[in-house]
Amino acid sequence: MSDTSLFRDFTVNSLIDDAHKQWKVELNHHVFREDMANDIIDTSLIPHVSEDHIVWKAEKNATYPVKRAYILCVKELVDTSFLRRPGYWSSIWKLKVLSKIKNFIWYMCRGCLPTSFKWSYLDFFS
Predict the structure, then answer these.
(1) Which of the residues 26, 40, 68, 125 has an alpha carbon 20 to 30 A from that of 110?
(2) Is residue 110 part of a domain?
(3) CB 87 within 8 A of CB 109
(4) How many domains does the chain have?
(5) Could you report the per-residue pLDDT of 55-77, keeping only the tens digit for each?
(6) How are beta strands 22-23 and 16-17 bridged, if at all?
C-alpha cells in the first residue's frame, strides 16, 4: 500500500480525539513536520462541535473554487488601497489604438514602467 493511499479518506477530524476534544499529538507529529504539528496542536478546539463537515460560506453549494478565494482575499482581507490611483482608467482601454499602446499608456500612468529612473505619475502630470 502506498503512503498516499493511507491519507485518501483523511480529514481534520482524523487528527482529533473526539472523546476528549483534543488533538492526537503523536499522530500530528507523525503526519506533519515538527513546526506544522506544533501549530496544529496549539490551535484551540471548540468542545461543543460534534461533527466535522466541509464549510465554505462564500459559495452557496459549499464548493471551494480557488478563484473565489482569491477574490475574497483581494477584495475583503488584503488592503489593496495602495494599488488604486485616481483617474479614468477605463478610458485608456476604450482608445482606438493598438493594445500595446494602451498597455504602455497604462503602465506609464501607473508609474510602473520597467526603467531604472524612479518617478511618479503625479510628477508627470503636475
Answers:
(1) 68
(2) yes
(3) yes
(4) 2
(5) 666 677 767 778 877 887 777 77
(6) antiparallel
Cell 488584503 belongs to residue: 78
In this prediction, residue 3 has a pLDDT band, given cuts at 50, 70 and 90, of low
Tell me how far apart the alpha carbons of residues 74 and 86 are, in angstroms, rounded to a whole number.
19
**Which structural domain range is residue 105 located in?**
85-125
Identify the bridge partners of residue 22 per DSSP, sorted by sequence position: 17
Whether 70 maps to a domain, the answer reads no
Q: How far apart are CA 90 and CA 95, in angstroms?
A: 9
Residue 106 lies in a domain: yes
Residue 108 confidence (pLDDT): 83
- Expressed in percent and rounded to 5, the helix, strand and coil fractions of the chain are 50, 5, 50
Residue 53 lies in a domain: no
User: Measured in whole angstroms, how far is the alpha carbon of residue 86 from the centre of its chain?
Assistant: 26
Q: Give the whole-angstrom CA distance, residue 90 versus residue 88.
A: 6
